[in-house]
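Forwarding the complex inputs:
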Amino acid sequence: MKRLLPLYVIAIYAFLHVPLLILCGFSFNSSKFTVWEGFSLVWYEAMWNDGVLAEATWNSLVIAVVSTVVATAVGTLGAYGLWKKNSRLLSGSMYLSLVTPEIITGIAMLATFQWAFRYLHLQLGMTTVIFAHVTFSMAYVLLVVMARLRTADPALEEAALDLGATEWQAFRLVTLPMLKPGIAAAALLAFTVSFDDYVITALVAGVDSETLPMVLYAMARRGANPVVSAISTVIFVGLGLLIVVSERLQKT
Amino acid sequence: MMRLRAFFLLPAWAFTLLLFLAPMGIIVVYSLQTKGVYGGVGEPWTVENYVRLFDPLYGVILLRSFAMAGAATFGCLVLAFPLALYISRSGTRKTLLLNLVMLPFWTSFLVRTYAWMFLLRDTGLINSMLLGMGLISEPLPLLYNDGAVVVGLIYGYLPFAVLPLYSNLERLDKGLLEAAADLGAKPWEAMLHVVLPLTAPGMRAACVLVFIPSLGAYLTPDLLGGGKSMMIGNLVQNQFTSARDWPFGAALSLALMAVVMLLLWALLRRDCEEML
Amino acid sequence: MRRRVFAASLAGLGCGRSRQSRLNVFNWSAYVAPETVPNFEREFGVKVRYSIYESNEEMLARVFSGNSGWDVVFPTHYMVPPMREQGLLVALDPAQLPNRKHLDPAFVRPGLTEYAVPYMWNATGIVFNKKLQPTPESWADLWRPALRGKITMLDDPAEVLAAALRKLGLSLNSRNPDELRAAQREALRQKPLLRAYLNSEVRDQVVAGDVMAAQLWSTTAQQAIDAAPHLGFVYPREGFPVNLDCAVILRESPRQELAHAWINYLLRPDVSARVADSMRTATANLAARPLLGAGTRDNGTLYPSAEVMARAEWFETMTPEVQRLRDRLWTEIKSA
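Prediction (whole assembly, three chains):
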């Protein structure tokens, strides 16, 4: 039994990674089809030259970065506030938003924006997408930071207060540094969730806010497309490097 | 004290109120209205949409969604448990192994689904290999059926099953296993009677994290199922797009959320205090 | 810091409208030639944001709010009356569209002219692998048990019901519940034989041979045939639906003059011919026909003969009750 376990683990990791590795491998295939016809970078060239793709990637990055920053800040503060004194309604709503299927939250937000736009004369665009992303990312941040806070010792803050610190100082100098790994993990999660989101973004996006998942979906819908494989490889490798780098940083 | 706490909670409240609770309120309002002639919503107010929910057709769709989500959850639990066990005993390599589990999750969901389409097609890799090895004479129809959808769901949500199980297993007191061994239990007996019951909270959390998103999934059945089976997620999406029946879609969404909340309560009420 | 980000994004909201003149066009995929948009940009000295969609529903969902930001979109003809009823469209100014005279009168439909300009059209038929003997000629051929697992139908309720209705010899715009149920029974009989319900994505599978016969639009089919000469296309004997994609201007657009100029530009015979040639589409522009390359002009798939067109039937907009019945029938088919 003990000997089987490592074999099993290898098999599971293969299950998880092989489909992606194969996709990456075939992105270097010179032919469109699943028959290997030779090594080629032609799809990477096509990807590089695709203006729509470039703009969509840029949009995705901007949205992800902005919404991550805002969501992490709001979520961390919210988690701390809830840790001090719980509010069933707020934490309940956050958990509810996590388990509500995306199509429902997306439609609900679209309906809200439409209703608001009747009176405010705004348009669907980058801003609406960012607001939407912050809302769902925030719940993830809250989850992660609260999990971290639960293992924290309230006595430390009390000690700081006894020693004359203000509450804000107690938060900033005692609790916050301790939360750093949790906040970093939460931020990474928020970034991933935002960068990868399709359903909600597709519903609330405007003219100028086409994102990478939207372009990928359109391309996949139109049939087998090695450019999608090329993009996927780049994302996969990019994120892999990001993880390795963040590992190294955390160790130092 | 109150002012500071208000400051901390205000932004979270603002977003939750404006972009979650208010939208849900609008959905409730929509569910009580009638579909406009060509789409949109309007008067008169009616509960007809809720009455429509009791049509057996939708019950069938809900049951099918439950079955597929259930199969995916079971698959995830079975696959994730040994993996989580191994990682929890890996000492220094824990983070690396965990990150390797999460890495596919960090690539786009669409991409992962696309990778499976690539593998399962008649001219895809699996069939090409099997044909090449002479094991089959005709390609197997691996894609565009319920099985493909379940595999896609398992593949997509496996990391979500691993994490809570790992978290739970890691916190287990190793002393308990030793005590069991001292009392004469064989390893598999210890596993069955000691470890498994103690991982119940982790398994419940894993169930929540896999079952509920699978229930509302719509991209996976759409892309891998060939449009032949309708899950609840597809039905809801259909109401808001081709059927343009927002009121019924809203009622359906609220019904789905009620089911989800019920499940959450049933699965997590013991862990409630800890969660909230 | 959070406050600064918030303020910046608010500023961004207002900024969007005072930027340089930019026309926002939302169109079907593969409906303009590579040079169509750049040439327009150069000639009129504006920028064009050009995005694509794959279905009317996708477009309508974005446009419905009345604040989507798009100026010109291309609904299929039966979508125009609902969009007009919802107040989404603006009446076209004939004075700004002199090139309308180039249109094929066959495509100038009643109820459309005031708000929509015909652009490209296509019809639904059967694309098949020539290895299939005997070659398909009618919708009934897609119900052949021998083809189990090798047939696909479109993932579109109107199209599937249309095929079933025509197979039964009924109008594809039938509003009669009994007729619709009979069509549904046909579709349910067919479902076990189907590989999947697929739209354009089936093109690669037909080329690769995974699928032997598929219900598909003529333009998509032609793209498949271009890639694989062993494929053929047929307009079913029992009759088939016709779709006309039209250009409309959204009421919310603050650039209506520019929008008119864009549509007028697309109506130029040479522009239309270039699109039709490079993207293998069927243009509704009569004056463009002589300018088409021989491969396109004489193409029986894209430009069927009058005799074939006599079997065609145009999709009509359904009343809400009938639409609801059709949706329900489709849900039943899908969840069977």
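The beta strands of chain B are 34-35, 41-42.
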